Amino acid sequence: MRLSRYFLPILKENPKEAEIVSHRFMLRSGMVRQNSQGIYTWLPLGKRVLDKVNAIIREEQNRSGAIELLMPTMQSADLWIESGRYEAYGKEMLRITDRQERAMLFGPTNEEVITDIFRSYVRSYKQLPLNLYHIQWKFRDEIRPRFGTMRSREFMMKDAYSFDLTREGAEHSYKKMFTAYLRTFDRLGLRAIPMRADTGPIGGDLSHEFIILAETGESEVFCHRDFVNFDIPPEDVDFDSAEAMQDVFAKWTSVYAATDEMHDAAVFDALPEGERLSARGIEVGHIFYFGTKYSEPLNAKVQGPDGKEHTVHMGSYGIGPTRLVPAIIEASHDENGIIWPRSVAPFETIIVNMKAGDAACDGVAERLYEALTNAGQDVLYDDTDERAGAKFATADLIGAPFQIIVGPRGVANGEVEVKDRKTGARETMTVEAALARVA
Amino acid sequence: MRLSRYFLPILKENPKEAEIVSHRFMLRSGMVRQNSQGIYTWLPLGKRVLDKVNAIIREEQNRSGAIELLMPTMQSADLWIESGRYEAYGKEMLRITDRQERAMLFGPTNEEVITDIFRSYVRSYKQLPLNLYHIQWKFRDEIRPRFGTMRSREFMMKDAYSFDLTREGAEHSYKKMFTAYLRTFDRLGLRAIPMRADTGPIGGDLSHEFIILAETGESEVFCHRDFVNFDIPPEDVDFDSAEAMQDVFAKWTSVYAATDEMHDAAVFDALPEGERLSARGIEVGHIFYFGTKYSEPLNAKVQGPDGKEHTVHMGSYGIGPTRLVPAIIEASHDENGIIWPRSVAPFETIIVNMKAGDAACDGVAERLYEALTNAGQDVLYDDTDERAGAKFATADLIGAPFQIIVGPRGVANGEVEVKDRKTGARETMTVEAALARVA
Q: Which residues form a coiled coil (chains A, B) (predicted)?
């Protein structure tokens, strides 16, 4: 992408409303814009990151055997009355009346809708296990939306729903998602720690939050230091094997980890001091096993091998992509801007032409741009006539892993400079070496 | 994808509510499910098609220079009051009050929001031309939603918005989208004919609808037969060249074409009979140039080369992906089911194992499945123990371009059968030849 033809509205000033660093950098780098309180547009740069985050989530959901569909944002109130949650959900639910005076709502979550879909089609245990997910906009009318897209009213959620004949099967399904989440967050460059959690309005008796550690975290968390070095399940882990899933689950729940709500100070304090880790955390995922809480009132049953009807056991599994983006920034930035993990970087390389209009600089920059684009890289080519200082500031702010700096002095020697955004190291090398370095 | 692990809820009976063939086949093949009146879930098979349609739309938008972002579904009423459309839009607009008693709405279109974004960031003509688009859910509370996702209340729309300093520039932008649309519909396997159109509630003085011909079309259309053979602009057409765009536009507007509303019977009837084509049509895209209709009330101005402020000239350009899917089916099906163009087929090949559980058949089917999957094809492998007749019916219904039929008799000779869904031709050949045929 040539910057001269892109839409990248960089803000020079720090926006006053931004209380945390991710919100500040997302506004300054032109990733998002607030349209109304807690409602955001994802500008082109932000949209690129969001797409990459979603692609990784999707790959890991699919790998675990979950199947993607797409439910609507607008739901009928009827199903929520049937499940008993319509009144209980309170003011966070955005209630809407359509032109036929029917009670509708903007879905804050989808347990009811998916259970209705399930009961309409599935009759036999032979069609189980089943895990259906979608990535769709949700709305929760928070009284105090804040921190940009970290806690917004309209937000994107990947929500998966598992259906099993038995509790045992449902626990296998739960551990599949547990494993998929470990892999997902790792690929996003995050170390997420699963912590036993309260089940809140979703209900159920087994639940884990996945928490990343960050100074700006909304809650205090407590865990064993060992988590920092636990191995992530490999790509070829056998999701179909209950034993393999149990192994992952056992390992990752073998030592102490708790959010503030579930914290047991006596147990934690009994750990040797060097093994204790207490910090601020950001929740980036939440998984639930809730048995028949929705299948019972909604009458979702299948015929079992015994020929009898069985109410299915369910779980639900959420990740918020529009929350993950700022969480990644909280975990990876410096005073100059964002430091993207390569897997989700909006651009992998930025080519900074220090003297646009100079035939020699343009020639080298164009050659780099063409070579990297042809190699399938996402490249931003700063071909504008801004002064060099502003270009460097922008490149640091938007945080591509590599910058290739093309200036007249280097070009005269057939050289360019490659800057590693993370370490800040700059190195002069030939064009060919630069291409190899960022490949 | 192995069918035994997929979620493909095939209906045996014809759903009573389906009045048109696309709606019938989309329900029967488990592509969509109605959740409430005019509100649908895209089940896994439908989601795959929708994704492929969107990918093609996106590629052609990007090729033309348009830039993707993502605006929210919920909008504040304030901007619509500012533009003067809040009252005018009537009951089709879903009006919502949030917990703070603020007037909100579920966006039926985005002229106001995008103009607000534009005016917040763009100050100079040097940043123009600019074309920003998104693919997002919209809601129009139609009094009579029908024909499945062809006319639903919650629907997906790709809407692009162009900004130019002058009318001349805006016309160039308009012709870019005109050209991009011709390419988009062609890649979706459709012959779409641009027809001068009424501008309706969007306003403006230049507008074309893109209409495909189909017996079930909602309106009567009239055009010159030559349209059927006009060449589609090539991939490397120069979008930056006003002349190249004018050439495309001139060609595709050189002969008569009109919807019912704009029809001039005298002109049409003057054509030789053999050149007249009158038929039913389905609108699949609509583009508008509306000058300063929104930029004027919303005060979207840039500084021109003359140092003065100029109100920008705008256009908007819509395609409905959730409408395109049934439109493609209307244009391509037979009595047994859908016949997908390869570019948007949910699966390119279906492997039908006629005797699942038979070691020889399983071996050959697995080999085919693995080879095609590794080659990057979207393959559905029917490994279930349904009887052969039901498997054939399903394969025809869901309409993958190719079926590879693996049966015990053929396998004994080292052979399988390849069926071309469109022609119905079946041919016996070796496994290697089958792989080459569907590649």
A: none
Tell me if B340 sits within 8 A of B318, measured CB to CB: no
Q: Which residues contact B144 (CB under 8 A, 6 or more apart)?
A: none
- Interchain CB contact of B130 with A (< 8 Å): yes
* Phi, psi dihedral angles at A135 (to 5 degrees): -120, 110
- Alpha-carbon distance of A372 to A348, in angstroms, equals 10
Could you tell me whether strands B309-311 and B301-303 are parallel, antiparallel, or unpaired per DSSP bridges? antiparallel
Q: Which of these, B142, B36, B56, B105, lies nearest to B321 by C-alpha position?
A: B56
CA distances from A141 to A39, A108, A136, A149, B236 (A): 10, 9, 16, 14, 47
Decide if the complex's ipTM is over 0.85.
yes
pTM above 0.95, yes or no: yes
A143 touches chain B (CB under 8 A): yes
Nearest Cβ partner of A39 from B33, B70, B72? B72
Write out the two tokens for B174.
């308009």
At A353-406, the pLDDT tens digits run 999 999 999 999 999 999 999 999 999 999 999 999 999 999 999 999 999 999
Query: Residues spanned by CATH 3.40.50.800 within chain B?
Result: 349-438
Residue intervals in chain A for CATH 3.30.930.10: 3-338
Q: Which of residues 89-118 of B touch A (CB under 8 A)?
A: 91-92, 94, 96, 98-100, 102, 104, 106, 113, 116-117
* Element containing residue B257 per DSSP (H, E): strand B257-259
Contact (Cβ atoms closer than 8 angstroms) between residue A257 and residue A197: no
What are B207-224's pLDDT values in tens digits? 999 999 988 888 899 999
3-state secondary structure labels for all residues of chain A: CEHHHCCCCCCCCCCCCCCCHHHHHHHHCCCEEEEECCEEEECHHHHHHHHHHHHHHHHHHHHCCCEECECCCEEEHHHHHHHCCCCCCHHHCEEEECCCCCEEEECCCCHHHHHHHHHHHCCEHHHCCEEEEEEEEEECCCCCCECHHHECCEEEEEEEEEEECCHHHHHHHHHHHHHHHHHHHHHCCCCEEEEECCCHHHCCCEEEEEEEECCCCCEEEEEEHHHHHCCCCCCCCCCCCHHHHHHHHHHHCCCCEEEHHHCCHHHHHCCCHHHEEEEEEEEEEEEEEEECCCCCCCCCEEECCCCCEEECEEEEEEECHHHHHHHHHHHCEECCEECCCHHHCCCCEEEEECCCCCHHHHHHHHHHHHHHHHCCCCEEEECCCCCHHHHHHHHHHHCCCEEEEECHHHHHCCEEEEEECCCCCEEEEEHHHHHHHHC
What single DSSP character describes residue B344?
Answer: G
With an 8 Å Cβ cutoff, is B15 touching chain A?
A: no
A50 to chain B, closest Cα gap in Å: 10
Residue in chain A nearest B138 by alpha carbon: A73
Domain B349-438 adopts which CATH fold? Answer: Rossmann fold (3.40.50)
- CA of residue A384 relative to chain centroid, distance: 32
User: pLDDT, tens digit, for every residue of B255-306?
Assistant: 999 988 889 999 999 999 999 999 999 999 999 999 999 999 999 999 999 9
Is the distance from CB of A317 to CB of A288 less than 8 angstroms?
Answer: yes
- A3 in reach of chain B (CB within 8 A): no
Contact A96 B94 (CB under 8 A): yes
Superfamily of domain B3-338: Bira Bifunctional Protein; Domain 2 (3.30.930.10)
Burial profile B70-102: b = 16 or more Cβ within 10 angstroms, e = fewer = bbbbbbbbebbebbebbeeeeeebbbbebeeee
Strand order in the sheet with A74-76: A74-76, A103-106, A94-97
Q: How far apart (Å, rounded) are the C-alpha atoms in residues A335 and A359?
A: 34
